[in-house]
Amino acid sequence: MSNPRRLTDPIGLDVLEEMQERFAALGRMTVCICTLDGVAITQPTWGSLFSKLIGTSAIGDRAWQEALQECTIRSDSSAPATCHEGMTLHATPIIADEQALAMLVIGTRSELPSSSKEIRRIADMYKVNPDELESAAKAFNPASGGTREDILRFAETLAHIIATIHTQASRITRQLADLRTVHELSQLLAGSLDLQEILDVTVRRVVEVMEVKACAIRLLNFENGELVIKAVHNLSDEYLNKGAVLLRDNIIDAKAFAGEAVTIEDAANDPRIRYPQNARREGIVSGLCVPVAYRGEAIGVIRVYTSRRHVFTEPEESLLRSIGSQAAAAIIHGRLRSERTQSERIERQVATAGEIQRRMLPLRAPEWTGVQLGCVYDPTLLLGGDFYDFIELPDGQLGVCIADVVGKGVPAALLMASIRSTLRAYAPTSDDITRIVRQTNRDLCRDTLVSEFATLFYCVLSHDGRRLVYCNAGHPPPILLRGDDVCLLDEGGLVIGIEPTENFDQGVIDLNVGDVVVMVTDGVTEAMSFSDEAYGDGRLLASVRQHRALSADQMAQQILWDVRRFVGLAEQSDDITVVTIKAV
Question: Residue 87: how many CB atoms within 10 A of its CB?
Fold first, then answer.
């Protein structure tokens, strides 16, 4: 039995009845729409009061239903069906998309019985009021539809209009449904689902919405060119494990990856299909393949399959493309969320490591007989490669060091921690400063790559602060300012971490009251202004001269502020460390 909802779902019963009323009035005909097997879909619109009085009676209604069934059966016959004492019925199919949806039935009368006796007989037969029926007969105005051919053309025109409206309404309904599907899917995919849940939801919804047999999503492994199955609905493991799918070897997927929508009419006999026997065994007949693309860049393909021959329409292709785009966006965003979570975890770890590193550096310089000590440290990142230290030695002397590890970030920080711990381990074991530097260099060469090295300046202050013994391992030479004279403390050797057999020399300075020693890392002299001009050695010396009257700690702070004023808002790429010694 045919389904009346096929016609009324997209149009609506009220719209159909309004249309038939207007056409009935235009031609003074009785009009009704029924199913293909003669069951009324709409209530009939009667062409005259006479027909209405008969048709709305209990007997007349039964006769009308029987006449509809007979009319639809005889719709191709040259002999029309009759009903209600002389009404002639004509049935015309309503055809949309090459399929009959319903029948349009038109009833016409050319004349009525003229005698009162005959009219009363009809009234008695159908159990209606004879006076009303006779009055209706006198007022009867016959149908103006013309000949039978005219009536049939009239019916065909009305049927065509209804079919056209049905087609347009169906298309709009489908488009709205597709938009709703895409919107619902986008809302769902924008949630807190992980990547696999996103893909699983997508393939399941595609099968439901497009009413296909199965759906699969493959994402490209950009390293080896394989399209890896990531999500599937309603395909067997045997089919999925049929073999690797390489993009370069698969015409269908390659075209889809390039942006085309590729259709498969008969998978079992399509020469582009690499495993036709598997498709036949799986019950796959037709297919559609489109890209999974984000902002024009394909990251995979999405395929749908049917179990019977099917020609995919443009709206279906458009829908699958939209779903593929939504899925691609969700996949990319899912990856970004995962990367962000990982990045945040690493940032927390780096921040913790930075706190630990800063605890390795002295908060302030110690007090020492005969001298003032100052220090300042300004890192550009959470983790840095600069460090300084003060080491109280067993013989009552004080070790002072400043160093700069090559590189930045985590690797430099780890190397810095290694050098610091090594230096602290060897410093108390010998009063030979060059031996301590050699041991530190040897250990660093053993544990690091050739590209990993550091500059180091290590010195020892006597217990009274009047003698300074130092070794400079490739570090920017500290400045000794004595009166107006300047001396650079450059005795030593190469940077540490490159040559394990390197020998180092030492230098000895007897400090006089008022002498100033300033140690810095190259973040000071290489600090750049907005005009790409380096701070340089000359400005550093001028700053030392300007602030020599201050305490050692104030001098270190002022040197830092001079560098900052010179730099302004220009972004810096290196840490700044300053250690000062002032003989008092």
Answer: 26
C-alpha to C-alpha distance for 273 and 200, rounded to whole angstroms: 25
In order, the DSSP letters of 315-341 are: HHHHHHHHHHHHHHHHHHHHHHHHHHH
Specify whether the CB–CB gap between 14 and 33 falls below 8 A: no
Please give the biggest Cα pair distance in the chain: 150
Distance CA 256, CA 302 (A): 9
Position 207, amino acid? V
Does domain 5-171 correspond to CATH entry 3.30.2010? no
| Contacts for 231 with CB less than 8 Å, ≥ 6 apart | 196, 199, 200, 202, 203, 216, 217
The token duo for 174 is 């489908």
**What's the CA gap between 523 and 573, in Å, rounded?**
8
DSSP state of 269: G
- Rounded Cα–Cα distance for residues 491 and 507 (Å): 5
Distance CA 313, CA 319 (A): 10
Tokens 């149908």 locate to: 143
- C-alpha distances out from residue 184 to 96, 170, 302, 323, 470, Å: 30, 21, 19, 10, 73
Question: Contact 102/126 with Cβ under 8 angstroms?
Answer: no
Confidence band for 189, pLDDT divided at 50, 70 and 90: low
Residue pointed to by tokens 């540490």? 496
CATH topology of domain 190-336: Beta-Lactamase (3.30.450)
Q: Which CATH number fits domain 361-583: 1.20.1250.20, 3.40.50.2000, 3.60.40.10, 3.40.30.10?
A: 3.60.40.10
Question: Other CB atoms closer than 10 Å to residue 152's CB: what's the count?
Answer: 16
Give the domain ranges of the chain.
5-171, 190-336, 361-583
What's the pLDDT score for residue 362? 86
510, amino acid identity: D
Q: Tell me: the pLDDT tens digits for 279-327? A: 888 899 999 999 998 888 899 999 999 999 999 988 888 888 888 888 8
Q: Identify whether the C-beta of residue 455 lies closer than 8 Å to the C-beta of residue 436.
A: no
Measured in residues, the chain has a length of 584
| Nearest CA-CA partner of 140 in 49, 63, 209, 224 | 49
Task: List, for residues 134-166, the tens digit of each pLDDT value.
Answer: 999 888 877 665 666 777 777 788 888 888 887
CA distance 489 to 479: 7
Helix or strand (DSSP H, E) at 162: helix 148-189
CA pair distance 445, 403, nearest whole angstrom: 16
From 303, 295, 302, select the one nearest 332 (Cα to Cα): 295
Identical fold between 5-171 and 190-336: yes
Torsion angle in degrees (nearest 10) through CA of 185, 191, 194, 198: 0
Distance CA 169, CA 171 (A): 5
- Residue 434: CB atoms within 10 A of its CB come to 19
